[in-house]
Amino acid sequence: MPEVAFHDKVVDEMLRRNNKVKAALHKKFARTKPFRGEEISNDELLFYYEGLDQMGMQTLLQTHGEEAVSELIRKMETMKMERQNGRN
């Protein structure tokens, strides 16, 4: 039984320290933007869309659904046509 109590004390102390560090980090970085929080540019989005293969498209369908993927495809194809018309 003493081993269990010792283990519980160690775990409790570790969790207390972890929460203390977590609170300090949250306070320090409260006003900063999260990583990649800015919106992706249209050129970059189009670049990734053009490089998307069948497996990537299947993954998008599974994670976001058919309606969202259809909207993305429409948006990307419109951007491609606008880009081509702008260059000609």
- Total helix count? 4
How much of the residues is beta strand, in percent?
under 5%
The number of E-state strands comes to 0
What about the largest sheet? none
Q: What is the helix content?
A: over 70%
Shape: elongated
Radius of gyration using CA atoms only: 24 Å
SS-based class: mainly alpha
Mean pLDDT: 85
- pLDDT under 50 segments (min length 5)? none
Distance between the termini: 80 Å
Order of helices and strands: HHHH
Attribute tags:
88 residues; mainly alpha; single chain; elongated; 4 helices
Summarize the structure.
The chain has 4 helices and no strands. The chain has helices at residues 2-28, 42-50, 54-64, 66-87.
Task: Write the topology of this structure.
Layout: H1 2-28, H2 42-50, H3 54-64, H4 66-87
Helix pairs in contact: 2-4, 3-4
Structure write-up:
This protein is an all-alpha fold and 88 residues long. It contains four helices and no strands. The longest helix has 27 residues, at 2-28. It is elongated and about 75 Å long.
